Amino acid sequence: MAKQIGILTAGGDSPGLNAAIRGVGKAAMGAYGMNVIGFRDGFRGLMENRTLRLDGPVLSGILTIGGTILGTSRDKPHKMPMGDQEMDMTDVMVANYRKHNLDALVCLGGGGTQKNAYHLMQHGLNVITLPKTIDNDVARTDITFGFDTALVIATEAIDRLHSTAHSHHRIIVVEIMGHNAGWLALGAGIAGGADVILIPEIHYDVEKVAESILERSHSGKAFSIVAVSEGAISKQDAKIVAKAEKKLQKALDKGDKKARQKAEAKLAELQTWQVEGTVRLARQLEELTRLESRVTILGHLQRGGTPSAADRLLATRLGTACADLIDEDVFGVMVAARGDGAEPVPLDQVAGQRKVVPLDHPWIESARRIGTSIGD
Ligand code: F6P
After folding, report:
1. Number of C-beta neighbours around residue 371 at 10 A
2. Ligand 1 mean position to 262 CA, how many Å?
3. Which of 1, 32, 111, 243 is deepest in the core (most CB within 10 A)?
4. In whole angstroms, what is the distance from residue 177 CA to residue 190 CA?
């Protein structure tokens, strides 16, 4: 009997999602005669049973379109916002999966989605996932789709900022997404020829950053581009955060509710403060170097628009491999990119893990060799 499969996209959207939906859908229907439905807006659509039939016409013409035709959300099955409270809606999702007689649920997403998919797997669903995110921080895959497109966008932004920084003899601090991983800032920083690259994995020293800018200035280069990852943090600030985290841990160990609430409030305050880190950095650099500074926050521009050729290829490769694995009844895995191919990796090895930039990564070495300051 023909298999029935459901697909959903969850977490932040990213270029390449439609290419992946198309890859899974066309291969599942064309090669194996499966029936495919989509759930709208991530796990919320599965809970609310809002579906879209993914037949031939729906899957046509979407390869080049950014975002996701299914819509997405950051809702979690076990912590679903319902009115003014959060509820565990796992059982409702399991019931809807059964109602559609599904043989498999394909979840396309980043780290959070891998965790949520694993949760549903533990509740008896045949789950299979694909790694998507512009952050490239999903564990056990060579790369995620969405990353290449964002890399191209951020690199082009740095290219464009060069001419205006040069004309005005300014420092331009450009903030690049990536959550707590520095892949995007590091990759775009190197490809775009940034003079300073700051990533979350290496806590920076603002005085050293200023020194490197002044050195450039003294050698006749009166402008500098600082590519800073949104999660980058100075050595000084990292110490403050570590202290607050330690306090929280102590309160948790002791079971001290009051101290826990206080520590949580402090951490939340630090998080808000961290959001303004790039603006603060530019101000500090201006004070230390006496060079005029400006800030550009690329934000969601990095997630929008047409996917690059590399992302279309990757998403199609992983999507079609996913259909093959469903046909072989391989579930509870993420379809990881491995070399030129694809490889199933057990979800328990992916869920809850994050792939950050290793300190000895060749990209860091190369950046240092060409004289880029990494802020340490
Ligand atoms: O995970 C992708 C990402 O774009 C991160 O780089 C960023 O920190 C986050 O999502 C932003 O999330 P939202 O779109 O929910 O503001």
Report:
1. 10
2. 27
3. 111
4. 15
Return the pLDDT at 326. Answer: 98
SS3 352: coil
Distances (CA, A) of 309 to 15, 132, 152, 315: 11, 15, 11, 10
Distances (CA, A) of 146 to 66, 130, 207, 290, 312: 10, 12, 34, 38, 9
Q: What is the pLDDT of residues 3-28, one digit of tens each?
A: 999 999 999 999 999 999 999 999 99
Report CA(304)–ligand 1 centroid distance (Å): 12
What are 82-102's pLDDT values in tens digits?
A: 999 999 999 999 999 999 999
Spatial separation of the C-alpha atoms in residues 318 and 145, rounded to whole Å:
9
Distance CA 8, CA 41 (A): 7
Residue 1 pLDDT: 86
Residue 88 annotated to the active site = no
For residues 337 and 339, what is the distance between their CA atoms, to the nearest angstrom? 6
From the alpha carbon of 137, which atom of ligand 1 is closest?
A: 1
Q: Which residues contact 219 (CB under 8 A, 6 or more apart)?
A: none
How close is the Cα of 12 to the center of ligand 1, in Å? 6
pLDDT number for residue 17: 98
Q: Which is the closest atom of ligand 1 to the Cα of 177?
A: 6
pLDDT of residue 47: 98
What is the DSSP pairing of strand 196-198 with strand 333-338? unpaired
C-alpha torsion angle, residues 185, 351, 301, 188 (rounded to 10): 20
| 144: Cα separation from own chain's centroid | 9
CB 213 within 8 A of CB 289: yes
Ligand 1 pocket, residue 178 CB under 6 Å:
yes
**Helix, strand, coil percentages, rounded to 5, for the chain:** 50, 20, 35
- Kind and range of the H or E run holding 8: strand 4-9
- Spans of the chain, pLDDT less than 70: none
Which ligand 1 atom is nearest residue 11's CA? Answer: 1
